[in-house]
Description:
The complex is a heterotrimer. Chain A is of the alpha+beta class. Chain A is built from 14 helices and 12 strands. Among the domains of chain A are: about 5-100, no CATH class; about 125-215, Double Stranded RNA Binding Domain (2-Layer Sandwich). Helix content of chain A is about 30%, strand content about 20%. Chain A starts with a helix and ends in a 20-residue tail after the last helix. The model of chain A is unreliable at about 5-10 (pLDDT under 50). By secondary structure, chain B is mostly helical. Chain B has helices spanning about 5-25, 45-50, 55-65, 70, 90-110, 170-180, 195-205, 205-215, 225-240, 250-260, 265-275, 275-290, 305-315, 325-330, 335-345, 345-355, 405-420, and strands spanning about 85-90, 125, 140-145, 155-160, 165. The radius of gyration of chain B is 30 Å and the shape is globular. The termini of chain C are far apart. Chain C has helices at about 70-80, 85-95, 100-145; strands at about 15-20, 25-35, 50-55, 60-65, 80-85. Chain C has a 5-stranded mixed sheet. Chain C folds into 2 domains: about 5-100, CATH 3.30.1320.10; about 100-145. The chains are: A alpha+beta, B mainly alpha, C alpha+beta. Chains A and B meet through helix 11, strand 11 and strand 12 of A and helix 4, strand 1, helix 5 and helix 17 of B. Strand 11 (about 305-310) of chain A pairs antiparallel with strand 1 of chain B, so a sheet runs across the interface. Chain C: One of its GO terms (molecular function) is structural constituent of ribosome. Chain C: This is Small ribosomal subunit protein bS16m. Chain C: It comes from Caenorhabditis remanei (Caenorhabditis vulgaris). Chain C: Its main location: mitochondrion.
Amino acid sequence: MASLLPLVQTRSNTVNFFMRRSGPELWKTLTSVSKSGQKKGRRNTRQPIRPLNRFYRIGSSPMKVEFAGLNAPMRMNQDQGLLSIAEQTEDEIRDSLGGVKKILEEKDTGKKKRNREKLHPMERGFSGTQLVGQKLGAPPPVDGVDFDDFETYCLEVKRTSNMTNVFGRVHTMSALVVTGNGRGLAGYAVGKAPIHRTTTAIINGMGMASRKIFHVELHEGRTIYQDFYAECRNTRVFAQRRPRGFGLTCHPRLIKICEAIGIKDIYVKVEGSTKNYLALTHAFVTGLLNQETHQQLAERKGLHVVEMSPSRHFLPQIVASPISVELKTEETLEALDRLNLDDFYGEGRYPLRKPKALPFFSNLEGHLDARWRKHPFRNQESTMIRLIADNMVPRWTRDARAAWAEQRNERMTTGVEPMPLGIGLSHVVPKKED
Amino acid sequence: MNTVTIQTSMLKLKPKISAFTRLSTEVRQSSQWVKASGSSTTDDVNIEKLFVEKNVQKLLTDLTDIDLEHKVFRPRRTSIQQRSHFALMTDERLEKTRERMREEARRFLQFVPVKEPRQETVQTLAKDAELKDFDTSKFVFTDITFDATDQDRTVVVREPDGTLRTANPEEHDRMNRTYYQKPNRPVNPPPLFSDPYLQQALDKNEHEFVLDWSCWFYEPDDPAFVRLSQLIFDRINETNKFHVITSTRHFGSFVFYLALNDNIPKLLNYFGSFGRLSDCANLIRLQKAVKPDWRVTIAQGDSEEKIVKDFIKQNARFRDQIGDLLNFINNGKVKQDQDLEKQTFGVRERVGRMDRRKARITSANVRGVEGPLAELSEEYPVKVVKSEGSGERDAVEKKDEGRGKGRWRSRDQNSKEDKKKD
Amino acid sequence: MRKLVIPKYYGRPSIGLALLGCTNRPFYHVCVFPDRALGRRYEGNILEQVGTFDPLPNQKNEKLVALNFGRLKYWIGERNAHISVPVLELLGLSGLFPIHPKSFIRAKDNRALIADQQLKTVAEAAEAEKITQEQDSSGAPSTSHPQ
């Protein structure tokens, strides 16, 4: 056989248009959309690139025949011929036979596979698949200080724009990030990145936040020391101390901030702008940092700070007494010191209290009717509990009650238990026997 | 049916019922509170009168010490969530408030009355043989007239054999509970008042809870109440768990019951183990007041120690029961405070967490290990900055716990050391 | 519904049982109605509730009756109310009134019924005994003669 070498070399010269162009070039002629076409919206209807050689590559076969120059290198020595069959183990043969199937399966699973693992509802963040509100872990160590026990939350990712002389409108991603260790240490910062680089912005924010750590004193390690009012721009924040086990009742972003700091019981009312999260964060943190601890209060006033807990029937218990200042006596007391302590915080401002609006359906006829239909059963649950407690009914399931009724019926019909008779009950007459 | 017959029939019944109730309170042979085994000598003792006698009440109130922190006003679960209040107080003011709380506690600790149980016998009001088998079940008639109280409400029962009788105390109270419901007062007595559950509760040192609930559930002169409280008192005495009942409102009736039954040595020993000599003497005085013909004689001017010593001398049979007391009298040794801690553990464990957190910084302990610096105070001298003094600002350290992990702390320390070098 | 009469001032009041409760669970209120002629099912007709009556015995085999005797005396004595027979029976049993004749009839009927049942049970027992004796007498020889 004459050498194929010259044939291969001359291929580009001799063959037609399709042979002359490479694959990508050819596809481009089909799938490309012009600039003006893009403007007219043709990008959406363009043809996709089809993977034609997905299942069968040219020259491949289950037997793995090697064609020199096609799927094997050309060999200069002609001893073995141009065709040769590669040796295969049985496994390889089986694999190559099931190759098509394998590719198909791969495709199916590839479509179903989610690229992110499912998150617990409590950790899912504010919306859908976005990172906003999710737990993001500890920030990277700075200067050899590691933040192992810190937790980071992203509160907001937004696109900001700036008008420049040269580039026109320049967009930037900006992320508000809070990090904290849940024991009083926390920091917040805004991270920036070029447009669409959300994650970069958040990571920058984490880095910044971990450099701006502040410490908040927590009362009993769970709540604030006293009610406070704080404001930033048009955002006004009224925070209130709450008893143990109350939980976080506040703006969702503030919940995340409280979790980062370690506040467990608080009630916060936000007035004014509730969507300027940076101002909100700033106001809240300012308020927290402006608090004074009981010890500081005692020092400032020169008096004992006494806690009166309702769970102890308001038994007075000293929580702080002045160390560096002399304790005042009744004679040296000023009129100001006699006032109620709670009135001082909040600078005389109080949050607007609105009664909760009734739902629209509360006065609809159907709703009222449904309520009336439920009315006979209003005591059912307590009665059930009482009956179970008194051992009247073993279990409150439909089957158990039916069995109980069946048993009673049997006992009455056989005469073990007397049939209740008497005043107010209808008389029982035995059936006539014909 | 005209009005005249009604009037006459009512007139017929009413005096009978009232006469019966009067009879039940006056004529009595022996008290239910005195156990037969204790002493059979004193039969005609009116314990209701004896309990409210002035000197007995005084002795009982003296014996009931008021422990505000751990007993009377210990943290309890409240029905509504409420945050604690804070106030600024001077020492005088604080003392005044504490005094008011003590007054309140005295009101809280008012004793549960000790009353003779009502008699269980019933009186037949009418008998009608013709009415036999008119129904298979009893009829219980309750008078729900508006102005009747729980005590004088008329409850009558018509038996299936036709007799009409007054209700026994159990039925009477059950009808009260049926028609006049109160929260946590079900119609039937809860299983907690009967044994497997009662013992479980007592094992968990819930004596006060059970007694409180039984006070709420029963009338004080209910035979069931008397039986239950005696049972609990006996078990307290058997197991030496006096700490669960001290400074509660049941302590008076408990001590009174013990004194009535000549059963005080264990309690004496308990007081002795804390070195509370006056309480011991008061207890012996109480026993004497309750049982005037008791062998121990107490003169007017006897000192407390003499009273106790006389008691020990004359009651040699109790010698093995009052080891701690003897130890205290002879050697002046009081049982360690550790024991106290251990005994009050049941109460403390609910409190403990809160108390530890409220460790307070005062001028006394600010320099010590209990202060804000904790163990670091041994390494570094603590200076307290006076408000007018020149500022050595880093002298007073804020509480350092919970500020992150080791790195932070080590870094802090390094910076401090650097400053020291400077 | 517009009322044709004002119940408060209409006719001679009547005391009776008003059936409340639900399916298979009767429960009565002892009520005062404006007139015997007016219905008892309609709650608007009730002038006053003076008691309750539970016709089904409770766990301790008691039928509970609660009566407001003060108000009953007022309605009967001052307003001369008519009383229905079941209420008269209850009042008789409670000892306020003499016992109503119907209670005696009830008692007599019940006693007859019980006597009847006892006779029946005795007869049944005797029969059963006879049968067992017969079986014994027939069974004994059969065991002795296995053929």
